[in-house]
Design goal:
Elements (H helix, E strand, L loop, with lengths): L19 H21 L9 H13 L8 E2 H11 L5 H12 L9 E4 L17 E4 L1 H5 L11 E3 L6 E3 L8 H5 L1 E4 L4 E4 L4 H13 L5 H4 L13 E3 L2 H9 L1 E7 L1 E6 L5 E7 L6 H13 L6 E6 L8 E5 L5 H11 L3 E7 L1 E4 L2 E4 L2 H42 L1 H10 L3 H12 L3 H9 L7 H26 L1 H19 L6 E3 L16 E7 L3 E6 L13 E2 L9 E8 L3 E6 L3 E6 L13 E2 L12 E7 L7 E6 L3 E6 L11 E2 L9 E7 L4 E6 L3 E6 L13 E2 L9 E6 L5 E6 L3 E6 L13 E2 L10 E7 L4 E6 L3 E6 L13 E2 L9 E7 L36
Parallel strand pairs: 8-17
Antiparallel strand pairs: 1-3, 2-3, 4-5, 6-7, 8-9, 9-14, 10-11, 11-13, 12-13, 15-16, 18-19, 18-21, 19-24, 20-39, 22-23, 22-25, 23-28, 26-27, 26-29, 27-32, 30-31, 30-33, 31-36, 34-35, 34-37, 35-40, 38-39, 38-41
Helix pairs in contact: 2-3, 3-4, 7-12, 7-17, 12-15, 12-16, 12-17, 13-14, 14-15, 16-17
Keywords: ATP-binding, Coiled coil, Cytoplasm, DNA-binding, Isomerase, Nucleotide-binding, Topoisomerase
Enzyme class: isomerase
Subcellular location: Cytoplasm
Length: about 850
């Protein structure tokens, strides 16, 4: 017999040989599934990972409610770690902090008190210093938890139980998103707007067969906590249809100009998950290394009211170039890769938008069903007790006698059950009943409570019997969540891919005055920089010009429009108005040849603003010799900054004016000597760009064309002479003639008025801007200038100190809803109409 007490005896267990690769494979798969299920991926139902769920459940157990006092984060973390999550306290605290950061979660689930970090990457203060409580929306995640709505499982040491999922009255996975790296897979889900998601959930409840395209009419796209702009809907559609997509996100900015004329790019929003301090360091490094030449300085002026990253541009820097360099080289433009991966019944699955909403609704159906069953059971139990009490009260004398005659409580309960056919619970309630319940008022209360319970029981049973009615409850609760916690969208979505997005979509739309000097300096100045003046004033300085230079062209256009320059050589060029350098009223501007490829002998002679290059619009051009030409606007779409031929000019002739027409308009040609010809543009056929044109107006040898106007019956013609006199004239004063004729008199030119130098269409409620060769400008209201006859010399609009002279005038178009700018100045006596010694008599004896 073997000595079993010998420690050196061989083991009696069986050894099973296993290949090392099989053991490693099994162990790794077990580890991988543990990471996937219990750590890195959210549950599709409540959108939470185990660590977040345990923290919220622990806070619920500690009673840290939204309307209560905050509690030290160290205690919250310790409670969750000791009861449910036996891992490091650092990871628990990090998860708690993230749930409290309004720049990490679109709708924070925890309300923090103290330092919880910042967009600059600053860490939160130690957990012993910070405090927290559930936010109101976080509390909604835990509603009805005590009504047996979800399953509970033992915790890690089986001393307590914890929920496998939270009831989640809010669609947390969609509104807050999630991110995590598991083993061999990862999730990266963007946040969304609560109102949009709740509307989509309600639409799905109404129609479970709703398509993803229809759901996208409710959910525009992701809505990040830090705002920003998403370019294009292609990536959004991919993410919603397949569960994967790429979103191009840019920071949102405004363009500002300082009093000294410096141009600033001010970013008020940055892409999601971008560290602001690192971003500013990157911009500074690019500026120092000259990789971005146009930046003079960059500063962080952010405060508790929001982000404000100010980038100051160098003088002459092109805004669009600097922006493109910033987007290309910094995190002001990022790509958010959407991966809608979540746990569905414990298995990782990539989900489309319809599936995300479907699984949430299914979870709510399960929660509300179990809640209804719980409430029905409790109501029936209470009604059962009340029915027993009502029987006892109806036979109170006999009940008291039975109890008094009984030896103990058990015997009393047994006799009561036998006498009145009561249950154990009813008999217990009767023997526990206080004497105060015997009053008539208490009896009435018990009866009212019983009646109310019967109504409630009937309603709860109807919910369980009718699924559509149950879905209606879920829909009502979802709408209530939306109404209480919903807010406006933060992230803007711009249709089209980023390459097709013009920068003016991000630039404020406003009217700009564009000035071009004889030496070729150009700038744009907001018309709001000019104050209204009375008629006849001297104006204000609009440009500090170099010696021997003078302002030659003036034009008013919106920052969102194209501006086409046509030169005396008949070539056309175009730019966006916002691409012109913005200056102050007194700045010189940038040279036109630094912006356009203009030859040395070319000068800008005509400017036209247009919104687009279409076949429905035409460019109607007029030369100094009276030649006119009509070309479809679409012919100039390729002009850009290198230029293409617009008109073939005769030797010694030059282009003086151009305007946009609709193809069937009437136009008025006005000469410097005061003649005007009204004619229909049908008399001028559309031509190719390289043709000469046809005779438009017959001019005297010493006369030239000064401008073109399109006939608009609701508007009037405003004409201006070189020495500051002008008037308004009705289009109806002129009858239509064929082209090639001399027209009718529109102005009596004299030595005191000088020749006509400008004409423009105006409405009564608009304003005009006039400018002289030396850069003096005046902005005044149109209705301060009288409507006069064809021969009248008009009123003094601008006081001129010779040898200065007026070079042009343009209208300032009022946008719908615009208020009048500035305070109108009443004209003084000396600034009113032409004085008696200067007066002349117009047609019909009308005083000028």
């Amino acid at each position: 017999m073997a000595d079993t007490g010998n420690p050196s005896a061989a083991p009696t267990g069986k050894i099973i040989p296993i290949a090392i690769e099989d053991e490693v494979k099994t162990a790794y798969l077990n580890y991988a599934m543990s990471v996937i299920v219990a750590r890195a991926l959210p549950d599709v139902r409540d959108g939470l990972k185990p660590v977040h769920r345990r923290l919220l459940y622990s806070m619920d157990g500690l009673g840290v409610r939204p309307n209560g006092a905050t509690m030290k984060c160290a205690r919250i973390t310790g409670d969750a770690m000791g009861k449910y999550h036996p891992h490091g306290d650092a990871s628990l605290y990090d998860a708690l902090v993230r749930m409290a950061q309004d720049f990490s979660l679109r709708y924070p689930l925890i309300q923090g008190q103290g330092n919880f970090g910042s967009l600059d990457g600053d860490p939160a203060a130690a957990m012993r210093y910070t405090e927290a409580r559930l936010s109101r929306i976080g509390d909604e995640m835990l509603q009805d938890l005590g009504k047996e709505t979800v399953d509970f499982v033992p915790n890690y040491d089986e001393s307590l139980t914890e929920p496998t999922v939270l009831p989640a009255a809010v669609p947390n996975l969609l509104i807050n998103g999630s991110s995590g790296i598991a083993v061999g897979m990862a999730t990266n889900m963007p946040s969304h707007n609560l109102v949009e998601v709740c509307n989509a959930v309600c639409a799905y409840i109404d129609n479970p067969e709703i398509s993803i395209e229809e759901l996208m009419t409710f959910i525009q796209g992701p809505d990040f906590p830090t705002g920003g702009i998403i370019f294009g809907r292609h990536g959004i559609r991919d993410a919603y249809k397949t569960g994967r997509g790429k979103l191009l996100v840019r920071g949102k900015f405004n363009v500002e100009t300082t009093k000294s004329g410096k141009e600033l790019i001010v970013f008020t929003e940055i892409p999601y998950a971008v560290n602001k301090a690192v971003l500013l360091e990157r911009i500074g490094a690019l500026t120092r290394e000259k990789e971005i030449d146009g930046i003079a300085n960059s500063n962080d002026e952010s405060d508790r009211d929001g982000i404000r990253i100010v980038i100051e541009l160098k003088k002459g820097a092109i805004l669009k170039v600097v922006l493109n360099q910033l987007f290309s080289n910094t995190q002001l433009q990022t790509t958010f890769g959407v991966i809608n991966l979540a746990l569905v019944k414990g298995r990782p699955q990539t989900l489309n938008l319809q599936e995300l909403i479907r699984y949430f609704v299914e979870h709510r159906v399960d929660v509300v069903t179990r809640r209804t069953q719980y409430e029905l059971r409790k109501a029936e139990e209470r009604a059962h007790i009340l029915e027993g009490l009502m029987i006892a009260l109806a036979n109170i004398d006999e009940v008291v006698a039975i109890i008094k005659a009984s030896r103990d409580v058990a015997i009393a309960k047994q006799k009561l059950q036998e006498r009145f056919l009561l249950s154990e619970a009813q008999s217990q309630a009767i023997v526990d009943m206080r004497l105060g319940r015997l009053t008539s008022l208490e009896v009435e209360k018990l009866q009212a409570e019983l009646d109310e319970l019967k109504v409630q029981i009937a309603y709860l049973k109807s919910l369980l019997e009718d699924k559509q009615k149950l879905l209606g409850v879920i829909k009502d609760e979802t709408r209530s969540i939306s109404e209480r916690y919903g807010d406006k969208r933060r992230t803007e979505i711009v249709a089209g891919e980023v390459e097709n997005i013009n920068i003016e979509d991000l630039i404020k739309k406003e009217e700009m005055m564009i000035l071009i000097s004889n030496l070729g300096y150009v700038k744009r100045v907001p018309v709001t920089a000019y104050k209204n003046q009375g008629r006849g004033g001297k104006g204000m300085i609009s440009a500090k010009l170099a010696e021997d230079d003078f302002v030659e062209q003036i034009f008013v256009a919106s920052t969102h429009e194209y501006i086409m320059f046509i030169t005396n050589a008949g070539k056309s060029y175009w730019m966006k108005v916002h691409e012109l350098p913005e200056g102050s009223r007194t700045s010189k501007g940038a040279h036109i040849k630094s912006l356009l490829t203009i030859s040395p002998n070319e000068d800008i002679t005509a400017i036209v603003a247009l919104k687009d290059f279409t076949d429905e619009q035409f460019l109607f051009m007029g030369t100094a010799r009276g030649v006119v030409k009509k070309v479809a606007a679409s012919e100039f779409s390729n002009a850009k900054t290198r230029g293409i031929i617009a008109i073939k000019l005769d030797e010694g002739d030059k282009l003086v004016s151009a305007l946009l027409t609709g193809g069937s308009d009437e136009v008025v040609l006005i000469s410097r000597k005061g003649q005007a010809l009204r004619t229909h543009e049908d008399h001028v056929r559309a031509m190719g760009r390289s043709s000469r044109g046809v005779t438009g107006m017959k001019l005297d040898n010493d006369d030239e064309l000064t401008g073109l106007l399109r006939v608009v019956e609701a508007e009037k013609m405003l004409i201006l002479s070189e020495y500051g006199y002008g008037k308004r004239v009705d289009f109806s004063e002129f009858s239509s003639h064929g082209r090639g004729t001399g027209g009718q008199k529109i102005y009596t030119v004299g030595d005191k008025t000088g020749e006509l130098v400008g004409c423009v269409n105006v409405l009564d409620n608009e304003e005009i801007m006039c400018i002289t060769s030396q850069g003096k400008s005046i902005k005044l209201k149109v209705d301060s200038i009288r409507v006069m006859g064809r021969s009248a010399q008009g009123v003094r609009i601008l006081s001129i100190d010779k040898p200065d002279f007026v070079i042009g005038v343009d209208r300032i178009v009022k946008e719908d809803g615009d208020d009048d700018d500035g305070v109108p100045v009443e004209p003084s006596a000396e600034n009113d109409e032409v004085s008696s010694e200067d007066s002349s008599v117009g047609e019909g004896g009308e005083e000028s």
